[in-house]
Amino acid sequence: MTPLTAAWSGVFAEAGMNKTVTGSGLATARGGLFVGALVAGGIWVAVVYGLRASIVHNFDMTVRRLAGSA
User: Fold this and answer.
1) Are 32 and 9 in contact (CB under 8 A)?
2) What is the pLDDT of residues 38-51, one digit of tens each?
3) Taking the model in full, what pTM does it have?
4) CA dihedral 41, 43, 18, 14 (to 10 degrees)
5) Where are the alpha helices (DSSP H) in 2-69?
6) In the structure, what pLDDT confidence band is assigned to residue 9 with cuts at 50, 70 and 90?
7) Phi/psi at 25 (nearest 5 deg)?
8) Ramachandran bin of 30, using left for φ above 0, alpha for ψ from -120 to 50, beta for the remaining angles
9) What is the largest distance, in Å, between two alpha-carbon atoms of the chain?
10) How far from each other are the two terminal CA atoms of the chain, in whole angstroms?
């Protein structure tokens, strides 16, 4: 799920996915890498969105408590 590894495997698919390439071909390996990159990207988006929502909520509650309106 690291972007650097995904980019390296996309450029050098033969070296990055040796068993997949030899078993079913380079096009299938690159397709699988593309799908995997989309899934990993979705997971990263969900994690970042969740962290941001939590931080904003905690910040808002702290500001309200400090202002005396909570």
Assistant:
1) no
2) 998 899 999 999 99
3) 0.62
4) 0
5) 3-11, 13-16, 18-24, 26-67
6) confident
7) 105, 160
8) alpha
9) 66
10) 41
